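can u pls check wat happens w/ iron/sulfur cluster
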Amino acid sequence: MSQLRQPRPRFRASAAASLENRHMQSALDAATARLYEARLAAWGLLPDIESLRDRGREIRQATIAELDRYLDQFTRAFEDRGGHVHFAETAADATAEIAGICRRRGARLVAKSKSMASEEIRLNEALESEGLRVVETDLGEYILQLAGEHPAHIVAPAIEKTAEEVAALLGAVEGHELQPELEELTAAARRQLREVFTTADVWITGANFAVAETGSIVLVTNEGNGRLVSALPRVHIAILGVERLVPTTIDLAVLLQLLARSATGQRLTTYTTVVTGPRRAGEQDGPDELHVIVLDNGRSRLREGRYREMLNCIRCGACLNVCPVYRKSGGDAYGPVYSGPMGAVLVPLLVGLERAPSLPHASSLCGACTAACPVKIPLHELLLELRRELVADRVAPLTERLGFRLWALLWSTQLGYRVSTAVARVAAPLARWLPGPGRAWSSQRALPSLARRRFRDRRP
Ligand code: SF4
């Protein structure tokens, strides 16, 4: 069983609280709109974005189909260059492995750069329980660490925070008031993090990709903290979701183009760091020890069957920025790690549908997420499939299942269809007075009125 933290059981209650929060709503609206427009502009600059998306999709599908072979190739190449590969089947295995490395090195301070996989395995809590001090060095993650919160967006973790809120958090560490101005805030964060950069015993990062042919791990950042990892630390540990392999550097180039354009609208992310082995004799920069934790945590289960498409995800966040539900409910409603349409599909698959039954319903099924996905994952179809499973596995409430069963029965016979549509014709205007769950539905929607005469009743 995956140990991903379970999302909140009441998506509706959490989303309603977000809707009441005007500051959060305006920050989220502005940021997602900016990212959405930047992606469209960046896609528009390419002569043939559709071909690039098709190529990216082919690469992801071919890699997942032969994942074992590429994992073997990556492991051999990584170890040939002096790195250490550790396989972690569960979150607990991964955190135990990382804690063990820190213990053996006598580490006390751990610096982290942004990694959703580390959020998934609750790494900070695990290391802190071992007495280690863990500091996030990505600016957004650092802000959230100060606030005691989790990422609200997979690319822009502090997307819901206003400049005033950030000023209050950083000002509390400085011990004086800060103005909500960009330069003043980044200068404060730099002061607070600089010491961590130079004194951390161990650095922990994610890995956006890993290249099988060269045994390299690839870090993509806009702040440069990931780049420091390749230069400063004595020990560097990277957490790699097992599905994030790519066969060759040529394939990597395709996916990097798609990732940067789709995530932030950049042609290439500011820092793309390719780490191939620890520091060699005669080199000045780089870690003495380089470890990669290859994390499964439920991913292998998805390789067979309909949901394998989800393993193609390159975590660009484009589907979040276009989703009308995410843009209103905010990231917290989905639980602490993966949010938006990709989270609504992935989280139930990792933790079990019965533990996240609300998430497949957190969608209008408008298909905007599918249209935005650079590797063309059919997100809205997967959400529908999960809804079918909710019914088939009897996770959906009995009343809902009975209601749909009755509807299917009625419309399976001519008489049932005729009677029910005749009743609906008379009763449709009364829908707004429906009781119970029907009221919640009808208070937000107008039922279309039915034609006075059915098509089948019109005789020439
Ligand atoms: S599902 Fe597609 S759009 Fe969403 S984060 Fe993954 S790759 Fe990006």
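The beta strands are 84-88, 109-112, 133-136, 202-205, 209-211, 216-221, 235-241, 245-246, 271-275, 289-295.
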